[in-house]
Design goal:
Order of helices and strands: HHHHHHH
Oligomer: single chain
Number of strands: 0
Radius of gyration: 17 Å
Distance between the termini: 40 Å
Largest sheet: none
Number of helices: 7
Strand content: under 5%
Length: about 110
Amino acid sequence: MKLVREYLNEKFTDDDTDPIKDMGIGLAGKLKDIYKWTTPEYKDYLRIRDIVSKANGDSDKENRLARTMTKLITDPVKAYRRYLAAKNERGDNWEVTRIFLSRALELNKI
């Protein structure tokens, strides 16, 4: 019983790990299982950098440009690659990353 109590009172810290990502669960985890060998292409990084340069530091404009781009994407693999490129450029908490993730999920019917 003592072991169970210790695990129940475990504290989580803000380290580099996220339990949901580490266990591969959640919506992004489902895509990772489908596209485990997919990596962003050079062109995907260029598109993300174009969004950043055209927005010139304005986050609302970045979001508008990303939404416009995602409306034109009909290939689920391309949407996932753009998500990975945005994630590599600015991380998971960037709104543009979330926009491309939601488009990839939508195209994969998840």
